[in-house]
């Protein structure tokens, strides 16, 4: 991941509703959720959620698939993994034992999805 790409992802996540949307969709991997269900679960107007979904999608954090009349959104876990690796790329200045707790915590997560290009 390059700096500009990381900045786009971090910028998209820096707004509270978008962060809530992303966290919600991470919890619903691998099925994802339709846009209307995202709005319902967050108790927010659907048009507002649509704007936030578009921002997250442009940042590469979400993918969408049309199923008849529904658009189902999924969190791009591989993009999240890339962002996290970018943030800790030079972790602990060559002392990997300092990063061991972080690595252990992250390794308990589900494997990254193949949803993203």
From TrEMBL:
Pfam families cross-referenced by the UniProt entry:
HTH_20
Give the originating organism: Gluconacetobacter tumulisoli
Q: Which UniProt keywords apply?
A: DNA-binding, Transcription, Transcription regulation
Transcription in keyword set:
yes
**SMART domains attached to this UniProt entry:** HTH_ARSR
Please give the name of this protein. Helix-turn-helix transcriptional regulator
What GO terms are given for molecular function? DNA binding; DNA-binding transcription factor activity
Q: Which PANTHER family does the record cross-reference, listed alphabetically?
A: ARSENICAL RESISTANCE OPERON REPRESSOR ARSR-RELATED (PTHR43132:SF2)
The superkingdom listed in its UniProt entry is: Bacteria
Q: Which residues form a coiled coil?
A: none
**HTH arsR-type domain spans which residues?**
1-95
InterPro entries per the record?
A: ArsR-like_HTH, HTH_ArsR_DNA-bd_dom, Metal_resp_trans_reg, WH-like_DNA-bd_sf, WH_DNA-bd_sf
Q: What is the lineage of its organism?
A: Bacteria, Pseudomonadati, Pseudomonadota, Alphaproteobacteria, Acetobacterales
């Amino acid at each position: 991941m390059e700096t500009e790409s990381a900045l786009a992802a971090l910028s998209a996540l820096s707004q509270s509703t978008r962060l809530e949307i992303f966290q919600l969709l991470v919890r619903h991997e691998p099925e994802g959720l339709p846009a209307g269900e995202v709005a319902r679960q967050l108790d927010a107007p659907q048009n507002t959620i649509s704007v936030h979904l578009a921002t997250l999608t442009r940042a590469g954090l979400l993918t969408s698939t049309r199923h008849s009349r529904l658009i189902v959104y999924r969190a791009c876990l591989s993009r999240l993994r890339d962002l996290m690796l970018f943030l800790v790329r030079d972790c602990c200045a060559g002392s990997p034992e300092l990063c061991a707790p972080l690595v252990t915590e992250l390794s308990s997560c589900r494997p990254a999805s193949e949803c993203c290009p």
